[in-house]
């Protein structure tokens, strides 16, 4: 016998010994009876929690902390004896049903190796471990073997059928990944759970939840309560996360749900009197207000409500509720107000078309209200929660479609939140390779393939609003792509540069319809709003003690997504202050006021009425195109047209006069079309107050 053969036999012998299942029996631990006694006691305590948790999972309910408490006890026994199949199995189950799923794989593998018959559900969880390990064909065999041997007349088979369906779907999805990158956002993540990201429409701020260590006391498991944090993007790097200021965070668990599209309101859920309810907080200055529980139509008295989301029009709240009379877990509901003034919500209604037989999760509604991103444990999931897309047509939400791999994996993937342009989104996932538990990931959509070959439909959407079609060589596809412009900025004092709280009105200049009114932040002067393309907008900014300021935006239909970042300087009502009236319009070469000017003129009338001693000069200005004589005449006529309008509204003639300056007072270069456009303007200057 050679030396190498002898070595192989010895190694094989010891491997066989190490692979043996060692029961917690006196015969196996004669020299440590006390240690054995403590281990058995720990297992019995753990089993009580384990049974409660399993029963909850079977009913598609939350197991609470029962798996964690069971795990704590089983680990004590594991430290005493690492080679017991059943204890390894139970530890694996606890991990697989936690946020640290990948930790359970090795324990299930070991239990299967030590004794595949150690538990009736061994093959089922062995299949889940293989599924998490992306061994889908082997997982299918394990699930089939379990299904063939499971003879009980209950509804557990729906879980097995779901798992088999997931493996088949995941196997195909990984072979055909969608056009997107999914990157871990390291600056936001910790070794604990970091999840529930809600991104601002401009992509500059994120609010999320974490159970990282905080100033509160740790629980009996050594973990901390969930608090809500925020971070801002600076030079493509996220700042160190900080807890939200104000009254949101408490010693209870707070889980962020959805930030409003203008960034001023936040929905989150919290445990209150033994159940989860949805709360809302408002940003006032630098602090978030003490939250208010949403009305009983949403935060009911007999059920748990979580994962709420705003509708773009502000009339409805979407959320999830678990119904005690049903075994489908959390289901998507919505409730709408009858009046925004009264905030009287109607009875919540279920959205049957998007619900499955398993838990539904976080919801996100796009800016145009036509697309819902929803997480679900059911449907065509690859395992755990996956993110799906449902489109709204004729008042009905379509059957959700899986977003595909690599956004979705066999792990939990949920909490989709997108920027306005749809190019970037943020999700949470406990996939392998993260910092620990749930991590926050950034999704970057590539868009359509630039070199078309065959007509294909990419349901992943480079745009958040509509599927993007690649054009085939034979025909042209007209893509009805919705686009938005994010208008953001700050309002400040023109002299001191200090922030100013101001009221902003957004008007459709074509119709004169007021679209939106809001107030800028009292501490920072910040604001953000998203505007649809295909309109000409007037933006009026007003603050007590300041002259009103106006801006004009023309966003062509079908224009690319834009970001307008504006610093609006407000001027005190002081003699010498000048204000450009950007939303007064004339026909080319003429001085007759166009109807689109009425909204701006009404604001000027109101200013003159509110400040009765104000005296102004209305001035007209042109570019340098044409003769000086004609420009002077045209500018004078236009200024006089504004004065005549004010007179028609009962403003005394001695409080104003008109002056045409032609092209003599440019504010930009006349060498470019943009500069000439800026020079063609109407202004007023305060001459007395």
Structure description:
The chain has 689 residues and is of the alpha+beta class. The protein has four domains: 18-175, Alpha Horseshoe (Serine Threonine Protein Phosphatase 5, Tetratricopeptide repeat); 185-451, Neuraminidase (6 Propeller); 483-572, Immunoglobulin-like; 573-689, 60s Ribosomal Protein L30, Chain: A, CATH 3.30.1330. 24% of the residues lie in helices and 29% in strands. It has eleven helices and 36 strands. The strands form nine sheets. Strands 2, 3, 4, 5 and 6 form a five-stranded antiparallel beta sheet that branches. Strands 7, 8, 9, 10 and 11 form a five-stranded antiparallel beta sheet that branches. Strands 16, 17, 18, 19 and 20 form a five-stranded antiparallel beta sheet that branches. Helix 3 (66-80) packs antiparallel against helix 4 (85-96) and helix 4 packs antiparallel against helix 5 (104-114). The longest helix is centred in the first third of the chain and has 26 residues, at 33-58. The protein is elongated and about 110 Å long. The N and C termini lie far apart (113 Å).
Keywords:
single chain; 689 residues; alpha+beta; Serine Threonine Protein Phosphatase 5, Tetratricopeptide repeat; Neuraminidase; Immunoglobulin-like; 4 domains; five-stranded antiparallel beta sheet; disordered N terminus
